[in-house]
Amino acid sequence: MVDQGGQDPALSRPVQYLRGVGPARARTLQKLGINTVADLLAFYPSRYEDRSRLAAPSELVNGAVETVWGVVAATDERRPRKNMVITRIGIANGGEMVWGIFFNRPYLARELSPGTSLFFTGKVQRFGREIRLLNPEHEPAAGDDPIHSLRIVPVYPLTAGLTSKVLRKLIHDCLSQHGAALRETLPADLRQKYGLLEKAAAVGEIHFPCSRESLGLARKRLVFEELFYLQLGLARRRAQRQAEAGVEHGPDGPLLSEFRRSLPFTFTAGQERIWAEIKKDM
User: 66 pLDDT exceeds 50?
Assistant: First the structure.
């Protein structure tokens, strides 16, 4: 079913009712201008991180943002001062250990139990012989289609109370559930002529591109659509203006004659010609 405006009603659904949102998170999303499912799908990334490279611990570059795989082998917790908890999660890979360092997230020691297979992505810090990732994003390695690792990963504008990882998961789930409801807005012959993706495919690729090439195609489609409808809007306004009747003015009267006599100069032949054209238009 499609509403009178041509949009599937599912896209008008308040974002609050999506799984993983609720009233509190909906208020946070509203700060980003996201009120409906359609708003969430149209909230495009501001940039991307290429996390497709999976590095071995020995290959991790100090200061770089890297992705590494491992199995949780050790956890510990330190409290250097009041209101500060440092949780360390050690993942083993090929006989080497990489430590994920998390601040004020003690619950992770319970969530990430020994034997759990994980991807860590974060900034590398080599401290002596110890390899650390500071506040890394982590993702179970058991899934078939990771969304935070092993791919080109979208990074979104954020607001307080919302992380990239949470927003990425919300958009990924929303695409899976409602992406097919996106209505095609461009004629098939126009898409074929310019080699444009279908709307749903373009939105899916702009959020979670399969490759740099597919990301370029998604951008091409969405930019073309925006400019196409901008030009249509301008053409419509121009046609409306041309169709509107002008305001007709009467013949010269005494007020206009008095105005011309008050001028400290006399019209030249060229000015008289222009004045005659103006009167004709009016």
Answer: yes
